[in-house]
């Protein structure tokens, strides 16, 4: 259609070939475990495995692991846990092949986070929540996060990767600058006598985080736009940890991996929580999800070939194929052992995050709001690139588009209209 539609120019035969080639790569075997010690009861876990990308085709293709750490109550965390996945999936166009589906995820995650926040706002909930939301499709891991829970990955070779951003004001200069530019104030709690204590907070509201879902009584420049990272793991596998700040206030990433080395996922999650609580005491909700990805064990043939003694008998935590069973295909996909970065974007600007150019040009729906997916009637709809409502004809090349309420939300998030009507709530963290 347009010259922008470069993926449309890929011949179908090539696409099919690509699909076939990737079918050869086995799906990872995913095992997971979770553990939690509760202080306030505001940490929530959402796990959904064996989801079907194409509904009803019986082929399980992806799994979802998410952690919600609520504050000022648990309503926002519970609401997000119950609605976020649906809101993300609603923003993924139908009829995509696997590569397109995976490539559409970063943008769908942004839309789903913002829609969830907007819906929650309409329910007049003052609580808020951090979100660390992971979708695993074959060997591709996509993580979207707001707040200060963290997701880390250790590849089979022992390299550690951070798959989430830390949106604590205390340690994020860029976010402090963004909030100040949008009209918020960043400072410590003033005890009255001029003494300032505690971490940096955003005023009004006193939140320590620059991004979250919910928190409607703080400025709307506390945005729900997630940092998104997408990586592809080699078939050598790896271990993932998602934990709330209760763990990270006590343990480094290295310490978390080290303390549970060799344990299966469920024991590992318990061990990490135990170590964190032992180190610092139970000062906050302390929750951990551990996910192991590895090549599935081959079904044992009826007459197993005799094995050379002492070779390939025991599996390490990261399974590596015994050398005698290696086929050409496996060799090809098992090496090199590396983590390939597919996508990373942390901007708080919706226009950058929902832009039509990347990663796929034509996966937004033309006459739908890019955030809430409502149908736009003629005359409605504002280009994501427009600053002020300029209702007029929708021209495809101006898209994607927002409905009027999502456009209002976008402007509020960018500090272009007063928000929170100046209400000051008690401090929160
Ligand atoms: Zn909308």
Question: Could you characterize what this model shows?
Answer:
The protein has 429 residues and is an alpha+beta fold. Among the domains are: 29-163 and 223-296 and 329-355, PPM-type phosphatase domain (Phosphatase 2c, domain 1), CATH 3.60.40.10; 364-419, no CATH class. It has 10 helices and 16 strands. The chain has helices at residues 12-24, 75-90, 98-122, 173-181, 245-248, 253-258, 265-280, 328-334, 350-353, 404-413, and strands at residues 29-37, 43-52, 60-71, 128-137, 140-146, 150-155, 160-162, 185-190, 196-203, 213-214, 227-233, 238-243, 286-294, 339-345, 382-383, 401-402. Strands 2, 3, 4, 5, 10, 11 and 14 form a 7-stranded antiparallel β-sheet that branches. A hairpin with a 4-residue loop joins strand 6 (150-155) and strand 7. Helix 2 (75-90) packs antiparallel against helix 3 (98-122). The longest helix is centred in the first third of the chain and has 25 residues, at 98-122. The protein is globular, with a radius of gyration of 23 Å. Mean pLDDT is 82; it is low at 1-7, 303-335 and 419-429. Zinc ion is lined by residues 369, 371-372, 374, 402-403, 405-406. Belongs to the PP2C family.
